[in-house]
Amino acid sequence: MKKLLFLFLALTFFCSTDSFSQVKRLTNNKPFMLKGEVIDGETNIPIAKVNVEILGGQYTTTNGQGRFAISAKIGDELVIKSDDFVTVYHTIKENDFITLRVEKAKSEPAPIVSKSSKGKEQAGFNVYLDSAKFFLKKDAQKSIEYVTKALEPMRGKTISNKENSLAFETLGDINLFWTLPDLAIDNYKQSIQNNANTDVSIKLAKAFAQNKNYQESISVFQKLLKENLSAYQKVEVYEGLGDTYKAIGDGVKSVFNYQKALDVAKENKITPKITNLNSKIGEAYAQSGALNEAEEYFDNSLKLAKKENKQRAVSEKNKVADFYNQNREYDKEIQLREETLEELNSMGKAATVEDEALTPQRQNYKIANAFVAQEKYKQAIPYLERSIAEADKKEDLIVQKDAVRKLSEIYRDIGEFDKATESYQRYVEVVDELYVKKEQEISQAARLSKEITQKQNRIASLENDRKLNESRYKLAFENQELIERNSQIQKWVIISLAVIVLLLFFAAYTQYKNVKQQKFANNVLALKSLRSQMNPHFIFNALNSVNSFIAVNDERTANKYLTDFSLLMRSVLENSEEDFIPLEKEIELLQLYVKLEHFRFKDKFDYKITVDENIKLNEFVIPPMLLQPYVENAVWHGLRYKEEKGLLEINFQQIDSETIKISITDDGIGRSKSKEFKTENQKKQKSKGMGNTQKRIAILNQMYKDKVDVKVENIFENNEGTRVELILKKD
Fold it and tell me: Coiled-coil region(s) at which residues (predicted)?
């Protein structure tokens, strides 16, 4: 008994001493307003909107000049945090103005990933990612391991930007759930860099808030409000802003944004959000001291939660009970917690509430506290005992520790020292057990943190490898593109040169053709001109013959001659516009002409015209009046001056199917003697007929490649007699 009494007195002294030392420390370390500034370590430029907080206490931000003021005490740890620079921790040692220099954070470049993914590789990626999501809330290591496998390069596997974004979003979800918001922030950023996504941006803003980067969180949320959001996304953004402003103690802005979210949720009938937002508005009002408004919204949230499901209802009742506790309305608190206990018991094993406060041991403990606050100690004891029993069964050492200590204090206060001592001994045992467990948890947490960091490094290594491979691929692709581009340019240059050459050839050919056509047209015109000169010459000679008949008063002969002459003239005029006429027509004209000349010079010569029967006269053509000048020349310059009667022979002989030979032969005085008989007047005049004929033959041969070949020679050795041979080709 003495031993127990001594233990109780020691406990009382320990508690009293501990309380006295705390009071003394609080008296000597009064809060004061700490002032300071945050500047860039390199440029010395003040930095605005930096998160400034006392670890576990007050929060504020720097103004436009980078300055801040915050309530603090000696020994507090000041935390300066921003997404743009490395977090600074500063222990407050005195009440002086402080200047904190910060260094810019090194930003990692966005990883370069491959372009496409199909088939089995796509299926494998989805399977790994689904497995990672399955273990997200159960086993962080397994979950991250599956994300790593999803990102690991495999033969024939490529990862698209969208898939890479999904992987890093999942990694961010894992880190955020396991309270590693700094890692989650990096993950969400990489996800957005690979594929911009509004939902991931919302998660990034929430991660900023959880990491106490409140200004960055507010900035991201406000940017999102300028985008085209769905109704649910609008609710989430306004709700996130409300949460962030509530975290920094700005009740007015918190309620304002919660109310905006509630309006959108009501308009679009998003029921679960309506319940949550009523609850959050109640909490914000309670934090600001507006208890009546808080109670109104809590009443709404309770009614709405009851319409959803038991799990949601017990969660809301717990929140409202906490509000009643703060408001010292203990009877209402106890009633709600009793209802919560009943519903938790009715849910049994089906209860999957993750909130630690929503457990039977915690609810019993809080009911006991409410009775203790009213000094109803005996009513509190059964709830504490149930809390201890439940906690022991569920191995909840924290609640068990608190409940055993509270029970020891109650027994002490009501004078039951034996039970107080017994409870305190149990408390000491639980504390020791809890200490060991906490050490293990700390060790496990350190190991988990180390393993997660290693896995994060592994993922970073994979991204670096992917970046290197992608850079190589990109370089090879660009090189191939350059080669193809050069090849294309060369091809176009060659094609362009070929087109230019073809155009030049075409231009030259066109020019050549035009020149040839022009030359041909000129030759045709020359032929027409020569033919036009032949007709007057022939007519003039024929009229001279008529004139000679009239001179000798031989009218009858003149009339007959004129009749035959008119027939000849009609044929000549009909053919005057033709370049070529059938050989048969030319023979007819020639026969008619020779007949007229023989009619005039009967006593001077006889004539003979022979046509080879094998010649197909209709297949050969000849320029009109081509043979007449040679016949005329034979009569007028060879046979006319001969003393005895001469002979004129015209022979058409076939050499082959394509060629015939035309011979005009006379046994006249010859070309040499003929010149001697010319008068002075005849010598002065140039022979139009023979000259024009030679020109016509030259032009014809130029146009039609030697169609007519002419040879003139003497027959006899004394230079008498003349033979004219013409070779005429079919084409």
Answer: 438-472
Q: How is 181-239 classified by DSSP, letter by letter?
A: HHHHHHHHHHHHHHS--HHHHHHHHHHHHHTT-HHHHHHHHHHHTTS---HHHHHHHHH
Which residue pairs, CB below 8 angstroms and at least 24 apart, start in 246-251?
Answer: 246/280, 246/283, 246/284, 246/287, 247/59, 247/209, 247/212, 247/214, 248/59, 248/60, 248/61, 248/214, 249/59, 249/287, 251/284, 251/285, 251/287, 251/288, 251/290
CATH of domain 524-729: 3.30.565.10
Name residue 582's beta-bridge partners: 621
Length of the chain: 731
154 or 609: which carries more pLDDT confidence?
609
Give the up-direction half-sphere exposure of residue 666: CA atoms within 13 A in the CB hemisphere. 29
Q: What does the pLDDT read at residue 9?
A: 40
Give residue-wise pLDDT tens across range 586-633. 898 888 888 888 887 888 899 999 998 888 888 888 888 788 888 888
- Backbone CA torsion sign across 326, 329, 331, 332: negative
pLDDT of the residue at 110: 40
Return the CATH number of 31-102, one of 3.40.50.2000, 2.60.40.1120, 3.30.70.1520, 1.20.1310.10: 2.60.40.1120
Helix or strand (DSSP H, E) at 467: helix 417-551
Tokens 């006379």 found at: 666
125-210 fold: 1.25.40
The residues, ordered by sequence, that sit 6+ positions from 365 with a Cβ below 8 Å of its Cβ are 383, 384, 387, 399, 402, 403, 406
CA distance 258 to 266: 12
Please give the Cα distance from 4 to 534 (Å, whole number).
Answer: 166
3-state secondary structure at position 710: strand
Distance between CA atoms of 423 and 411, rounded to whole angstroms? 8
Element at 608 (helix H, strand E):
strand 605-611
pLDDT single digits (tens) 660-702: 999 999 988 887 777 776 655 555 444 555 667 777 777 777 7
Exposure on the CB side of residue 390, measured as CA atoms within 13 A: 20
| Non-local CB neighbours of 568 within 8 Å, separated by 6+ positions | 542, 589, 592, 593, 596
Burial of 462 (0-12, 13-18, 19+ CB in 10 A): middle
